[in-house]
Amino acid sequence: MREKILIVGAGFAGMWAALSAARLADKHQQPIEITVIAPQPELRVRPRFYENHVQTLVAPLQPLFDVTGITFLSGTVTQLLVQSKEVSWTDTEGKTHLLGYDRLVLASGSQVNRERVAGAAQHAFDLDQLESAAVLEQHLKDLAHKPECEARNTVVVCGGGFTGIEMALELPGRLRDILGADAKTRVVVVERGTQPGARWSQELRDVIAEASADLGVEWLMNAEVESVDASGVTLKNGQTLASQTVIWTVGVQANRLTAQIDAPRDRQGRLHVNEHLQVVGHDDIYATGDVAYAATDDKGNHALMTCQHAILLGKFAGNNAAASLLNVEPFPYRQEMYVTCLDLGAWGAVYTEGWDQQVKLTRAEAKKLKLSITSELIYPPKAERAAAFEMADPYAPFV
Ligand SMILES: Cc1cc2nc3c(=O)[nH]c(=O)nc-3n(C[C@H](O)[C@H](O)[C@H](O)COP(=O)(O)OP(=O)(O)OC[C@H]3O[C@@H](n4cnc5c(N)ncnc54)[C@H](O)[C@@H]3O)c2cc1C
Q: Does residue 222 register a pLDDT over 80?
């Protein structure tokens, strides 16, 4: 009987894990049954969810899985039965099934947590998942049909991390298109830190501050949200911001399935993994992408919840899960290079290299690079077996 690798999730990490496992089995001419379970056979391009036309930001995966011999099951995993090496999953018709595995690759991603602050779950929007980003997009369009007032014209973005910045700096242009060039629109980023991007390099902070000033995006610093309601935001210091559009971007947590494995997890719920991406204490379970807390080098850096890390983590996890069944040496996960490319709306973009974020490109040059990353580099390979396997090699050139 063929041995089985089961992959939970078809995001960046899950897709590449499946391809990488299939590649290694193909290379050693030893068949392994590789199955991916996820709600849809499509890659949802989350890094672009601050853009317009969010429903189009998906790429089909079934043709790619077909040519590479990967089985796809449409459904949701609800329980990890670690002792019996099975998962319980629910298909699209609501039927529950059990599926066994020899190796499990958990690649179920992350989600923003809007429960942290009173009223945010009911009254705030987010751009974390396709469905919620589509609701936000429709809401923004609908503002055009609402009576003109300060609250209609004001958008409050809670959190000045990368997601908050990309969303906020995109908004002046989007609001102009929706409400007209003469509307007195206001975009405010509420950030509890002392300055925009307090954790980043001074160079990067300067660029963000310049772009924000250019586009008229305001930053409210040392500001913590106390509650959100239908009229807007109340801060901990009592200040209120009247707004019909509050966008929540902070508090991203690893997918809840991680809590079903008895293993150490970090603050964001990510499972600690060894250099082969096996969950600590569970040699037959690999964690990858946003659910993995993985060292990227020997200098103390760890993978972030980014697509850049998820892609490579996925390739290593899939390769190593297959290697353990084929009795070949696994590859230690290493990702020394870290870059950021941040969209800054109509101002352009900024591209940095290194964990110390040295600014290498800004404005139009960086924007060109950003577009090539988000509309080409991170998309799935073509549905061609040899080409897909070549790219799925963990040591294939990447950023
Ligand atoms: C608005 C936004 C902007 C971002 N910008 C950037 C950026 O500029 N650069 C960057 O590098 N990263 C960016 N990111 C982060 C990046 O999108 C994530 O790090 C990346 O998607 C993680 O990949 P993943 O495969 O681990 O998870 P995901 O891409 O989230 O995929 C998870 C998969 O698991 C499936 N799944 C979840 N639960 C279950 C279950 N119970 N059963 C079965 N399947 C399940 C999902 O349906 C999905 O298929 C951004 C994210 C957001 C939301």
A: yes
